[in-house]
Amino acid sequence: MAYWDGLPADKDNLRLFQPVAGWHSYDDLKDADGHITAAGSNRELDVALTLALNATNLVVLTGAGSSFCAKNKLSTDQQAPGMSDLWDAVQKAVTADQFKKIFELLPKAASLGKNIEKLLTQCKLYVELFDGPDKDAVSKFIRDAEAAIAIRVNFLKDDTDLSAHTILLQKLARRGLRKPRTKVFTTNYDLCFEWAARSLRFTIVDGFSHSVPQVYDRGHFAYDLVRREFGRDGPDYIENVFQLYKLHGSLDWRRKDGEIHRSMDASVGQPVLIFPRDSKYQDAFDPPFLDMMGALQSTLREPDTALIISGFGFNDDHISKPILAAVEANMSMRLVICDIAFLDDGSLSSPDHIVPASSPLRSSGNGYFAKFKQLASIGDQRLTLVNGRFEDLALGLPDLVAQTERERHAERLRVLHGIPSNAGSIS
Question: How far apart are CA 292 and CA 249, in angstroms?
């Protein structure tokens, strides 16, 4: 990510893919006098994003890429972890003898390049195939590693910059009340969206009850919030409400006595998380993850659906394949993908206003990115491909609905009580 390291968030960082021309810069190209010499892609991209936001069913999918922009202020603070960071956290949490033992039992472990997902996959396979004391040692390592991962991904602090998340939610959750609520799907365990919604005083429907302790029930996704006032016959739907589906679980989900409670207390039951390993596909079909996957798949089959994907690397087949299947089957579906995987650093370093369509993918880009690019190249106008980050897209999305009076009132109260807001500019 050398090109992107330290680069401030800006919608001008976005490049729109145009099948004939290539990857078109967002901003207009101007001469020394300020005259436009070549039009940027901003108008075309704005139209595409506006059509997506106005779809009957609006769906958003994010992954780890959306958490990397949630920055803690101090350089000594932990930031959102990548795979190598999770490896380091596990190595630090377990004993040196434990790690040495794993490397002895799994000869290929030393060549995994700090890929904790592949390491835990091999450990899980070992436990399934072998018995004896070594099996017990590997099982303990898995438990210790999962506990270390759960601790490491809990990086949020009171002053974490969640500007990108708040800006995105402001633009996505403000929808016409006659349309279904925006559905946000994420593979992240962290609470970035929850904290951003709290700072905005937005309401989340995430399957949990409004009682204490909060308990998960899939039926709660069918609930909505209305304002009941004297003298009004019809329902008055509350604005700024969205649905949140956490495909791989959440840091504040704990399984206790057969139920899922919302709690950050590690002494309450067991964590409800799909940890990084190849068995994610099988784990995703256990409750409550099956409810989340079912909601994603059923929504993608609905007519006039728009799916906006950013920060998701298409590395989870159990999510990527249903998306590709929906693109093939649902002719009324619109798909917007914004990711840095479409272009490598060498292509981005070019001063050219338009980067050739043949430019190579980033090394992190996989076959799914190539397939979507191929579809767009051969004329599938339902696809809008954008090279950029989650935080760049948040700034580039058009703001279709003005700030509500309730939002303005909440902001005034924050100022009155000296409560900092996370909805400022993205640094």
Answer: 9
Average pLDDT over residues 219-240: 83
Question: What average pLDDT score do residues 179-195 get?
Answer: 97
Extents of the domains making up the chain: 11-74+161-409, 83-152
* CA–CA dist 337, 369 (Å, integer): 9
- pTM of the predicted model, to two decimals? 0.91
On the question of pLDDT at 424 being above 60, the answer is no
Q: Pick from 220, 299, 284: which is nearest to 248 by CA?
A: 284
Question: Exposed, middle or buried: residue 162 (CB in 10 Å: 0-12, 13-18, 19+)?
Answer: buried
Distance, in Å, from the CA atom of 314 to the CA atom of 12, rounded to the nearest integer, reads 25
Chain centroid to CA 176: how far?
A: 24
SS3 string, 178-241, reads CCCCEEEEECCCCCHHHHHHHHHCCEEECCECCCCCCEECHHHHHCCCEECCCCCCCCEECCCE
Q: Which two three-digit tokens encode residue 156?
A: 């949020």
Q: pLDDT tens digits for 25-78?
A: 999 988 888 888 888 999 999 999 999 999 999 999 999 999 999 999 988 899
Topology classification of domain 11-74+161-409: Rossmann fold (3.40.50)
Closest CA to 426 of 141, 70, 101: 70
DSSP string, 17-78: EETTTEEEESSPEE-TTS-EEE--SHHHHHHHHHHHHTSSEEEEEE-GGGTTT-B-SSTTS-
State mean pLDDT over 169-175: 90
Helix (H, G, I), strand (E, B) or coil at 323: helix
Beta bridge partners of residue 325, listed in sequence order? none
Residues across the chain = 427
More confident residue, 40 or 422: 40
Is residue 88 exposed (0-12), middle (13-18) or buried (19+ Cβ within 10 Å)?
middle
**pLDDT tens profile 248-276:** 999 999 999 999 999 999 899 999 999 98
Q: Which residues contact 146 (CB under 8 A, 6 or more apart)?
A: 120, 271, 273, 275
Q: Is the dihedral of CA 311, 317, 322, 323 positive or negative?
A: positive
